[in-house]
Design brief:
The chain has 251 residues and is α+β, with helices and mostly antiparallel strands. The chain folds into two domains: 98 residues, Immunoglobulin-like, CATH 2.60.40; 91 residues, no CATH class. Helix content is 26%, strand content 30%. It contains five helices and ten strands. The radius of gyration is 32 Å and the shape is globular. It starts with a helix and ends with a helix.
Length: 251
């Protein structure tokens, strides 16, 4: 073989080797691409619906004030003829629409409450009517739908927790609640994420034969009246990972 022929042969071998290397790299790239996970599908937007809410007092009386709670929306009513329209709520999902009213003013005011569960039609308006009854206290009212441990729990209902409510709150416990509520108010005024205030219920009890006003912690102290919060079970503050809600009363 001549020198020119040998040189041509060597160049041909180099070209074939380079082509083989390039083909191998391309094949590897194709295999790597094939192993990449498929793109994630866009999240499916859940259907939404609207609710037109009306309220009525069972005994036909007129309320002084009334508040309607529709999941995460709150409406203040001035008369029973006024309608509330809650928009953009999750459709096809049970929602406990709740209304809370006062009849009369001052010490003679009587509290009324009512809840109506409804599932909203998707992309439409569902009529919701809430009938309010006078209640003795909020604990008795909540017990009608939220049984305690050991009682039969209707399907879809939330059982009452083991914390005993309906007890007088005094002394350092009361001071702790005040401190919690001040902290909540300050955070809200500063535009920061804030918990819900702890609500106490004023009751008149007999002490040594005299009527005395006492403050009680109730179901409503730890849970909202079906107003959705960022915590489970309509809790007013974190109680699982942190103890913000517990610290609200306990020192």
């Amino acid at each position: 073989m001549t020198v020119q022929a040998r040189a041509l042969f060597n160049r041909s071998r180099l070209c074939l080797l380079a082509a083989a290397i390039a083909l191998s790299a391309l094949s590897g790239a194709v295999r790597l691409d094939a192993q990449e996970p498929p793109p994630k599908a866009a999240p499916v937007e859940k259907p939404k619906g609207d609710a037109e809410i009306t309220v009525a007092l069972a005994d036909g009386k007129k309320f002084a004030t009334c508040t309607v709670y529709a999941r995460n929306q709150v409406f203040k009513l001035t008369s029973a003829d006024e309608k509330s329209v809650a928009t953009g709520l999750p459709a096809e999902e049970r929602i406990a629409f709740t209304a809370d009213a006062r009849v009369g003013t001052g010490d003679s005011a009587v509290r009324y409450a009512g809840t109506a569960e409804s599932s909203l039609a998707a992309n439409g308006v569902t009529m919701v009517k809430i009938t309010l009854m006078p209640i003795k206290d909020i604990d008795s009212y909540c017990r009608e739908c939220h049984p305690t441990k050991g009682q039969k729990i209707p399907r879809g209902q939330i059982m009452r927790d083991i914390h005993v409510s309906g007890k007088v709150l005094e002394g350092k416990y009361l001071d702790q609640v005040k401190a919690h509520n001040i902290k909540v108010e300050q955070a809200r005024n500063e535009g920061k994420p804030a918990d819900e205030p702890i609500i106490l219920e004023e009751r008149i009890v007999k002490v040594a034969g005299k009527d005395v006003k006492k403050l009680f912690y109730t179901c409503e102290s730890c849970h909202t009246p079906h107003v959705a919060t960022r915590f489970r079970k309509y809790a007013r503050a974190e109680y699982l990972e942190k103890s913000d809600l517990c610290i609200g009363c306990h020192y």
